[in-house]
Write a structure and sequence with these properties.
The protein is an all-alpha fold and 222 residues long. It has twelve helices and no strands.
């Protein structure tokens, strides 16, 4: 009888899932590094089942869903992250990008605004850095120029051209995504009938490798 009890106890122990939420997340990250995003999601599901508050797993699953074009599913994951961490700039940025992909441009802009607010605001903002003694949340921070570039594109799509212009100027001053920023600013100049300025920007963008500029140049700059 004792032997039976011992065997049952051993089998029960063996059948238990001893992996932690972070263990599953780490396994998923290895698959993601190999480009196996679909295969990574079941592991992230397990990570989140083990710990529904695992922000790392939620963000990683959101990224995987975005890559697999499950934009609504990604938005749900980022929304959960924001419930857990209302100052998570990365979650706001990523959720905004997915709203943009669904052509919810105003919703995207609202999220980009919240990402900026989480950093302090447009005029005075803080870039978080790693600190060995306190949790700064640096791994979820995003550079201001990254946020403003994405906001500029969404603003352009709702014809908020003056505000989009300000965002792309900011990016150019930061030397961020220079070819693309010149391309978008060139489009804004063209939209305002400022073809000389627009064509200058578009030619610069093309010279720096932007592939979309040629079509606009051919149409407006000959």
């Amino acid at each position: 009888m004792k032997q039976v009890i011992i065997i049952v106890t051993i089998l029960t122990f063996i059948s238990c899932d001893l992996k932690s939420s972070m263990d599953y997340n780490s396994e998923a990250e290895k698959l993601e590094q190999e480009g196996k995003f679909l295969e990574a999601i079941p592991l992230l599901n397990k990570a989140i089942e083990k710990d529904p508050n695992n922000i790392y797993a939620l963000i990683n699953r959101g990224v995987d869903k975005s890559i697999l074009e499950d934009y609504k599913g990604a938005i749900e994951d980022y929304s959960k992250v924001i419930e857990l961490d209302s100052d998570n700039a990365l979650a706001f940025l990523n959720r905004g990008n997915n709203k943009h992909r669904l052509e919810d441009y105003q919703g995207a802009i609202d999220d980009f605004d919240k990402a900026i607010k989480s950093k302090g605001g447009e005029q005075v903002y803080i870039d978080k850095v790693q600190n060995s003694f306190i949790d700064t949340g640096f791994e979820f921070d995003v550079a201001m120029e990254v946020i403003r570039f994405e906001r500029g594109v969404s603003r352009y799509h709702i014809d908020s051209l003056k505000l989009a212009y300000d965002d792309f100027n900011f990016c150019l001053n930061k030397n961020y995504e220079k070819p693309a920023s010149l391309y978008w600013r060139g489009l804004i100049y063209i939209a305002h009938g400022m073809n000389k300025e627009g064509c200058f920007d578009l030619n610069e963008a093309q010279n720096l490798g932007d592939r979309d500029a040629k079509e606009i140049i051919d149409k407006y700059c000959k």
